[in-house]
Amino acid sequence: MKNAEQKSSLFSIDLATHALNPAVAFSILKRHLYAFYKHLTLKKLLNFCLTEYNRLTKKARLKSFPYILKVETTNICNLSCAYCYDGRRVPAEGERGFGRMSFEGFKRLIDEVGPYLFKINLYGFGEPFLDPQTIDMISYATSHNVGVGVSSNMNFTDDTLARRIVQSGLEVLIFSCHGVTQESYRKFMVKGNMELAFRNISEVIAQRAAAGSKTPFIDWQFCVTGFNQGEIEAAKVKARELGIDQVRFIKPFFPEDAGREWFSDLFPPHTTQPSSNKQAGCSWPYRSVYINYDGGVLPCCKDTRLMVNDFGNVFKEGFLSIWNNDKYVTSRQLIAAHKTDCQTMCARCAKFK
Given CA atoms 313, 81, 348, 21 in this order, what sign does their dihedral have? Predict the structure, then answer.
């Protein structure tokens, strides 16, 4: 049993989504491996090895740096998807408002930590392409040997966007589309236009072919519910017809009191019960960081709205001054021992209750 636990720890891979089967989960891992291979340098390799050593030995203060970032260019969205970001409600006192990241701030971030990064997931709780500078951000990161992935609903009427996406050097475009009939699509993606989204993704594929490029890799992300699970086979056919590279059927996370129709028979309902897998720990405070549009730094992508959760502000303090501050150190001590005076959002995580 001990050897099994050690093996699990050594090869732990934290995936952002729960896939329908191991093959789909492996397809997510392949994207990370591609970014690792394409953007590898000696400096990045040494940092990667040191990061994994620090994670396995549960160091609290690190001389390594994250090698994947999740950066939210904006938390503004043109849709109102069910159960997303509390229905786009007006922020309460102490909560982060809506806004966009400055290009100058993004450039400073890349200049500081880019030499250690294999990839940036350039999306959070908004629609990235609503920020007109997102394309410039992708190009800047790409020019600094950092791969970029973006998730988009592709509900736009900009005739130039597809061409500019291809020209930017974007490596992965996650196409968020949860249905192949307008009825189920609009039930989930409120205000969305499914046919417009399919036209736009088709144009990206056409522009990619015209440029003789293999990127961006088009990854259709289909969140499975009780009312759209009958469209899975039709979605596979649609993906082949359009030339989409991959379609992933994943488990969305709805609150436990959501109506039964929101939960697919293919996945058990999400539970917020404390985790019994204490060995798993958490890799985020070693491998990655979530950065809000305003520069607020979080250890992961949970509870991004509450500003009291921020570990610091990268635009005001610089990343390196935050990475080993008291909040990060006590959070890593929590991961190592499960018993500290940690007062950060990590202490409220179900993994450590």
Answer: negative
What three-state secondary structure class fits 183? helix
Which residues are paired to 150 by β-bridges?
173
The stretches of the chain forming alpha helices (DSSP H) are: 2-10, 22-38, 42-57, 85-88, 103-113, 134-143, 161-168, 182-188, 194-210, 232-242, 284-287, 314-317, 319-323, 326-337
CA distance 224 to 221: 9
Q: Give the whole-angstrom CA distance, residue 325 versus residue 29.
A: 30
Chain segment 305-339, per-residue pLDDT in tens: 999 999 999 999 999 999 999 999 999 999 998 77
Point out which residues pair with 220 in neighbouring strands.
175, 247
Structure tokens at 281: 């720990």
Tokens 């017809």 found at:
241
Q: Which amino acid is at 107?
A: K
How far is it, in rounded angstroms, from Cα 189 to Cα 196?
Answer: 13
Is 72 in contact with 293 (CB distance < 8 Å)?
A: yes
Neighbour tally for 158: CB within 10 Å: 11
Q: Are strands 217-223 and 288-291 parallel, antiparallel or unpaired?
A: unpaired
Amino acid at site 133:
Q
Indicate the pTM of the whole model.
Answer: 0.89
